[in-house]
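ok trying this again, last paste got cut off
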Amino acid sequence: MPPSIAVVTYQLLTNLGFKNIYLVGQNLSYQNNRRYAKGIEYDNEISSKKKLLSIKDVNNDDIWTDEGYNRMRLQLEAYIKATSNVNVYNTTKQGGARINGAPFIPLQEVIEKHFVHDQQVNHKWYKTDSKYEIDKIKKNLLFLKSAKSTFEQQLGELNSFIRKLGKLSNNSVNVKNSQYIEKEFAKFDKKFKKLKSNKYYLTFLLPMLRVQIENLVKKTKKDKI
């Protein structure tokens, strides 16, 4: 399972040098049998407690969560433990999951007691020298542009293969034809592996298609059973 946006954001902030991080809205649990806050309607109600896990909330009471939320919680805890130089606070509403390494402080208390200075952000924060290597960036952009062109060519070849295999499957199947189809599948598999290793695909498309690919793999495994 890919990391949640909260985990990715946490990594980004620590790499940027932030020393205080406040987790807001990371309940990672089901409150009042709802997945989301009141007012959000999509896929909201919990139909049953099957496959749910019992964990402790910020008040040390038992609450329900699922495998996905729990994995996100464990990922956060692992990164928090690995960055002991960062102060992390959990400002979730009461009833949210307890996150080890991130003491619970209500958001209102954070606003009143932590944000007490007039200038929490240096007003000259934008006046800094860029550390980006422009020549390296240009080189990488040209490389990705070339990879995109290669990817489009590879995708076109795969589509042609699929159409060809579709026509073959509609014809009468005999031993000779079956052997030919098997060889074509081997060629298709080889080309598909090349496409999946394409840097343009790995950089831009794979992250966007991650959920769809996971669902396809699950469906394929289910159909095989």
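PB: full thing came through this time. Residues 36-45 have pLDDT under 50 and may be disordered.
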